[in-house]
Design goal:
Layout (H helix, E strand, L loop, with lengths): L2 H16 L6 H9 L4 H7 L6 H41 L3 H4 L11 H15 L3 E2 L5 E3 H4 L19 E2 L4 E3 L5 H9 L4 E10 L11 E11 L4 H15 L6 E8 L2 E10 L16 E10 L1 H6 L8 E8 H9 L12 H4 L3
Bound molecules: phenylalanine (PHE).
Length: 341
């Protein structure tokens, strides 16, 4: 057994191994390193050699053995990696495709849609949109709006008080008027949509949480005619062109004179139907000319400026518009209801 022989055996083995398929590696291992494998045979035959040759051939054969072993391992690892890579490539998922179809798109809540629609209409009339805090102090919700402590008008406002009456949940969006006027000098033209709270039992037409949109315009020489034309324009765009509006005397502490505005029933055009309870008219909002005391609260000169204000309940208007008969539907998040908008 010469060195050349062993080198030849190893180089044959390596070339076979490096071109073998994964399933052939076991057989090659047996061929060289198994019980009757080529290298094993050489090691078994060492006894026939002289001590000198034993050492030389033994060392050579052991080197061959470990060389072949590591070639087998390397080949196995490389083939296994290629197999896994190929499998993963086949199983690859394009998540942008996977998520493409199964989920339905959400939609805006009907109250949010109403706020957006109403805001768009008033913006086109030159109003900006502001927001106020839902937690208010007595000053903003009452005092500054000409509703002094102990005034009976407070009783009608079923208020949720917080922190031992220091703060409260606003009962209307009218405190938004005060915030705007405190920050800004006239002219003012603004609407303030938002959530309001009343401490009252809920039923089909009452909820302790609902939404209002407040409107305010202040400048020199603003008159009731401006209020009327602004609201007429709003009604025509939101509910339908040609609908008549009318004003009935009313009372609010923060406006003088005060009025309730009705619009002709958009459903029957005033003929009388279920929606308008056969009256031909629908109560739409409260409004009036800003009370001088309100101007005094925000240090506007009531001799110089006049203004109008209005406030409407959004759920009520939306219920009328879509024929919804229970206000609680707005807050139950029942998809069967919400999907219709
Ligand atoms: N704040 C009144 C309410 O909640 C509505 C209103 C606003 C009336 C502005 C007049 C002027 O009923």
């Amino acid at each position: 057994m010469t060195m050349n022989n062993i080198e030849q055996i190893v180089s044959d083995a390596l070339s076979k191994i490096n071109s073998a398929a994964i399933a052939e590696l076991e057989a090659l291992k047996a061929e060289y390193l198994g019980k009757s494998g080529v290298i094993t045979q050489i090691l078994k035959s060492l006894s026939q050699y002289s001590i000198e040759e034993k050492k030389r051939i033994g060392a050579e054969a052991n080197k061959a053995k470990s060389g072949i072993e590591s070639a087998l391992e390397k080949r196995f690892a490389a083939l296994e990696k290629a197999r896994v890579d190929e499998k993963l490539a086949k199983e690859k998922i394009d998540f942008s495709q996977a998520f493409y179809f199964p989920f339905a798109k959400g939609s805006l809540h009907p109250v949010m849609q109403a706020i957006n629609d109403i805001s768009r209409i008033f913006k086109a009339l030159g109003f900006s949109v502001a927001e106020g805090p839902e937690i208010e102090t007595d000053w903003y919700n009452f005092e500054a709006l000409n509703i002094p402590a102990s005034h009976p008008a407070r009783d009608t406002q079923d208020t949720f008080y917080l922190d031992g009456m220091k703060n409260l949940l606003r009962t209307h969006t009218s405190p938004g008027q005060i915030h705007v006027m405190e920050k800004q000098k006239p002219p003012v033209k603004v609407i303030v949509p938002g959530r309001v709270y009343r401490n009252e039992a809920s039923d089909a037409s009452h909820s302790s949480i609902f939404h209002q949109v407040e409107g305010l315009a202040v400048d020199e020489n603003i008159t009731f005619a401006d209020l009327k034309s602004t609201l007429a324009s709003f009604v025509h765009q939101y509910f339908g062109s040609g609908l008549d509006i009318r004003f009935r005397p009313s009372h609010f502490q923060f406006t003088e004179p005060s009025a309730e505005m009705d619009m002709q029933c958009f459903f029957c055009k005033g003929k009388g139907c279920r929606v308008c309870k056969n009256s031909g008219w629908i109560e739409t909002l409260g409004c009036g000319m800003v009370h001088p005391n309100v101007f005094r609260s925000v240090k506007y000169d009531p001799e110089k400026y006049t203004g109008f204000a209005f406030g409407m309940g959004l759920e009520r208007i939306t219920m009328l518009k879509y024929g919804i008969d229970d206000i609680r539907l707005f807050y139950e998040n029942d998809l069967r209801f919400l999907k219709q908008f």
